[in-house]
Amino acid sequence: WNVVAYDSLGNPSAASSTRSFLVSSAKDWLAVASGDNHNIAIDSDGMLWAWGQNNHGQVGDGTTGAKSTPVRIGTLSDRWIEVGAGSNFSFAIRNDGSLWAWGANNLGQLGDGTTLDRLAPVRVSPVGETWLYVDGGQNHSVGINGNNNVYIWGDNSYGQFSQSAYAGLEWDWTRFAGGDVFLALSVGLVHGYKEPYEDKLPL
Hints:
This protein is mainly β and about 200 residues long. It has no helices and 14 strands. The strands form four sheets. The protein has a four-stranded antiparallel beta sheet, with no helix packed on it. A four-stranded antiparallel beta sheet has the order 5-6-7-8, with no helix packed on it. Strands 9-10-11-12 form a four-stranded antiparallel beta sheet, with no helix packed on it. It is globular, with a radius of gyration of 17 Å. The N and C termini lie far apart (about 40 Å). The relative contact order is 0.12.
């Protein structure tokens, strides 16, 4: 299923595999997201785990060493409900709706107002603001907040923001100006797709 150049399969033997295999039978899993060579997942207890390449801190354990098996991220009291991953950066939404990010940030893809890599999760949403979904591309990110509005941040070299002009990079979130309310989205390397709710829920 993958080439294990950075232990991204969660296989302690670091061997490549052309078939799927069980990463862990000790837990039930609710969500998983994959970047270029790393993965993050939420177990049935709401705990956050990650493994794989970690040169930019995308695993989120406070180091830059690759992890061949899942390691727990965050504190024992944290509970998580959603994960997303870009090429070498990661996102998670906590059960209070807050958005957290870590990993590569050279083009502002974490959305924390800086271009500094983060080796552990940092909160990027204002206090009291909730998020429903988040995902990352190569160097840009998109998310849906609690009002079902789509926001985009990071690299815009190829018009990923769906704006009339290419704006380089944005450290702060840009609201998609389509006027619709959105329920789901998907992100490619340098493009995105948004699924509007046809009944037009009120903003």
